[in-house]
Amino acid sequence: MTGRLGKGEAEIPPGAVAAWGALSGELDERVLLGFGGVSEYGITVRWDKNFLTLPYLSLMRRENFDLHGGVRFGGALDLDDAWRLGFDHVAIATGAGKPTIIDMKGNLARGVRKASDFLMALQLTGAFKKESVACLQLRMPVVVIGGGLTGVDTATESLAYYPVQVEKMAGRYDVLCERFGEETVRRFFSEEERAHLDEFVAHGRAVVAERERALRAGEEPDFIGMVRGWGGVRLVYRKNMEDSPAYRLNHEEIQKALEEGITFVECMSPTEILQDRFGAVRGIRFERQKRSEDGKWRASGEFVEMPAGTVLVAAGTSPNITYEKEKPGTFALDEKRSFFQVGRVENDSFAPVKRGRDDKGAAFLTSYVQGTRTVSVYGDNHAAYAGNVVKAMASARDGYSSVVGVFQDRIAGLAHTPTAIAERRAAWKKLLQKLDFELVAVVHEVNRLTPTITEVVVHAPAAARRFEPGQFYRLQNFEANSTDVAGSRLALEGLALTGAWTDPVKGLLSMIVLEMGVSSRLCAMLKPGERVVVMGPTGAPTDIPHGEKVILAGGGLGNAVLFSIGRAMRRNGNKVVYFAAFRRGEDLFKREEIESAADVVVWSTDAGQEIEPARHRPWDRHFRGNVVQAMKAYATGQFDETLIDLAECDRIVCIGSDRMMNAVRESRFGVLKPHLKPGHLAIGSINSPMQCMMKEICAQCLCKHVDPETGKDLPPVFSCFNQDQPLDRVDFENLMQRLRANSTQEKLTNLWLDHLVHECKLPIWSTL
Hints:
By secondary structure, this protein is α/β, with parallel strands linked by helices. Helix content is 31%, strand content 24%.
């Protein structure tokens, strides 16, 4: 047997596998293969994930199978692309979609996560590994809300992860203090972060001490008892345990979870997240539920408070119908508009099957039937199979015959002569070459723009060709190809990066990185020729009007996002005045791109060198101060004659840090109000924390909105679905809080990277 693993992953030597032991390894050291999301993060640590290698390797060694990861269906590749490439059928097995957002006051407070966010961050980034530099901060006590199998998994995973987290943090803290001095290390942390750091370090040292005690006594360490002593993990459900989906589907899962140390709390419905003086979770208020005589559950009016440092919400998900949301009219939806409508093709027409199953069995084909081209759905995308991993696997078993049936006549008509077989093999090989060229992302060059800003240019033709101004990509390297430095694996977490420019002819796209945290700093270590993941484009393109006067306001790295937007604005006949703000004049990058994006550029700097306007641009100016002050100076005539009057501008597009965008928002009702057009539109590109970037899946990117007139909460927005949001609706205080969800661990890990820079002479800059 011969074969290869996925793009960019470690090769397994050709030949038959003599023994299973050659493939298995320690679970906390196992390289994540990325072979399906649920396969990696939906199966708990109680199961040996080495078994996932077997189906993976078996498929990869098949002559007629190929795998391309990091490709978003609807982004770099859509149905029309699939047909153009020569495919005849598309099977959608994209799993669960939008998490349920429960009605609870403060449900987006810092310390509250959706279960899908937590499980994905834990497993797919490798945060559970001792050598990982990925950050996932968890504080005790943990409260998990939900009664399904995902809630049980979330509870047991959080209980298992906490000792790993604190032991890793304590070990790194002690090394850093010895190398740089405790006073130097601690000055990077705020008052709140120092308290959290001390808590984590104390718990980590206790874990080490317990491990040493158990070794001397010849016993297993009692980490469960320690975690319970620090507050433990509670799984809270609104009904009785026997009513919970987890109990009804697989009561053994609850039994095992209880044996591992979680506490199951019954008959409690969450009403409010309680916050401390820093805005972080300190507890949660529940209302006790009682079953009435008619058998229905109702609120009792009795309230109970539980302490919590972390709240994880596992309240269920909706099917993943993102493609239909992006491209309305492609698929018919069921009567509840929740699932893709499925049915059978009979007499060349589509016959819907209600809820996906009838007396003939399950149907799998969608309403998309274009001649011989069809689309089928499986797992959580299918009404008859949604709910758990076992059902998902059953859908594949039951559904393949439907696909085979579509091609039965063509299969029967295939010639099996040596010549015909050779021709089909040659056509398949040619298709693989085309897919590799189009979909595999390879680093083209890495350019240092400023001491803290790097440009990464990749060759990714399909991703470059589909880009529209305002969209972004998810950049990540492969764990198997990442560098191991002194016991630390330098694998990037997924980074949301806007396409600064694209060259569809050459298949190139540029992403500009501000090096603040570990993953962004590691981008400078990417090498030309290295395969990476560049998933996208994703997000919504920026709305480009016609014939308007437009204000662009960019802060720091936000200016990289405005290159393409400004050029598109001008191509559509808009007049653009661009306020480009930098902390220091030396931070300026891609000057020509900024100038080409505007009729007028007003440079503003807080310090450093002034940015002198180019001689061939007589309308450009420089201002010493922040972006709001520059806009006021421009509007009040401090720059003499102006080409575009702010009072005539129809819209503002603002992109920068959360603080910068909030300052622009507030100024429109203060110092800038007399100088702006009444009723103008103000849009901000919101930099929510992001992880999956697949649109409404993990929910890390949720952004709180508030009605500017009434002050009441509006439904939150998934920023990776649409990052351009009305400035006046965004709750910037909440955004600032959510961006700090992992701040203590992020700062410690950033200092750890400084240690590695000094210890191993890594080619990146150091904060120390």
